[in-house]
Design brief:
The protein is an alpha/beta fold. The chain contains eight helices and 17 strands. Strands 5-2-1-6-7-9-10 form a seven-stranded mixed sheet. Strands 12, 13, 14, 15, 16 and 17 form a six-stranded antiparallel sheet that branches. A two-stranded antiparallel ribbon has the order 3-4. Helix 1 (10-21) packs parallel to helix 2, helix 1 (10-21) runs parallel beside helix 6 (161-185) and helix 5 packs antiparallel against helix 7 (217-226). The N and C termini lie far apart (55 Å).
Length: 314
């Protein structure tokens, strides 16, 4: 089939690669414009952009698809279908209606749960034990379209957003190839989403990333793994007269007979265990500001923290 691909982050690359491998004709790749990144803040193309260039594909990165000229350019590609994977722009009605067979979205949740921008992070932060990746026929509403195919994935008790991201990306890539094969045969069915069980995965706000050890250990653990590696849940330590930010990248609920006030360091000898509002959490991998990620043991060798220290909350 003649396909327009629309995606931006690393999550989307696997799907584009599978579409190419399946022999589809990629008419064009739409992605977000290059953004300043790194220490020099030089403009850097998105992962999809970089991969598409390697494959010799036509790459387009308009800032908006609302203009008549952009919509006409899209229609002129004469596509059978568009595949959309974490693209980052709302598709106007004119775009949705341009491909002959419509637009299909790979969405990383068990719809209608976690519609929206951050379904992977929100599922883990909420303590969900399973999720899904689904192929949805797109319509004007936010992730409201009927579902064509889906695959469930378990969420392990210590699984991070990065680990779940990779599993969902691979599963979604396989599903979209199956969906397009069924579409070519004329056998692709779509089932409306249930009206019950709708929830929204709002974009992660910076303020949410700060760890509040007054919460239950399960909630602290879920926040840490749900925001790992980006943006990274963080706490502060006092170094001399200054405070230093530390990201917590991996954790587990601690098994300890020690207790203390919320935010109190219970162990800091090889293991870093911190009391929460109820229970305690053990930090396994952390990252100090401006430094590389490391194990808790390595962190403690370079940053002396005494048991009994209470970490600041605000």
């Amino acid at each position: 089939m003649r396909i327009i691909f629309m995606g931006t982050p690393e999550f989307s690359v696997a799907a584009l690669a599978e579409l190419i491998n399946a022999g589809h004709d990629i008419a064009a790749v739409y992605t977000q414009p290059p953004r300043p990144a790194g220490r020099g803040m030089a403009e850097r193309p998105s992962p999809v952009h970089a991969f598409a260039i390697e494959q010799g594909l036509d790459v387009r990165h308009p800032k908006s698809l609302k203009g008549a000229d952009e919509q006409e350019a899209f229609r002129a590609l004469d596509a059978d279908a568009a595949v959309v994977v974490a693209y980052g722009l709302i598709l106007p009605k004119a775009i949705l209606q341009a491909p002959r067979e419509g637009c299909f979205n790979i969405h990383a949740s068990h719809l209608p749960r976690w519609r929206g921008a951050a379904p992977i992070q929100r599922a883990i932060m909420a303590g969900d034990t399973s999720t899904a990746v689904m192929i949805m026929r797109m319509e004007e509403g936010l992730d409201t379209g009927p579902v064509c195919l889906g695959e469930m994935l378990p969420i392990g008790p210590d699984m991070t957003a990065s680990q779940l991201h990779d599993g969902l990306s691979e599963a979604g890539a396989g599903l979209i190839v199956r969906a397009l094969a069924a579409l070519e045969r004329g056998s692709l069915n779509a089932t409306p989403q249930p009206v019950e069980g709708v929830s929204y995965a709002a974009k992660i706000e910076k303020a949410e990333a700060r760890i509040d050890f007054r919460e239950a250990a399960a909630d602290v653990h879920n926040k840490i793994r749900g925001l790992s590696p980006f943006p990274g849940a963080w706490f502060e330590i006092e170094v001399g007269e200054k405070r230093e930010r530390v990201k917590a990248l991996m954790s587990r609920q601690a098994e300890t007979d020690k207790s203390g006030a919320a935010g109190e360091v219970l162990e800091a000898n090889g293991r870093l265990i911190i009391a929460c509002g109820s229970g305690a959490v053990e930090l396994l991998n952390v990252q100090r500001a401006g430094k590389k990620a490391c194990s808790a043991a390595d962190f403690l060798r370079g940053c002396a923290i005494e048991p009994g220290t209470v970490l600041p909350f605000e």
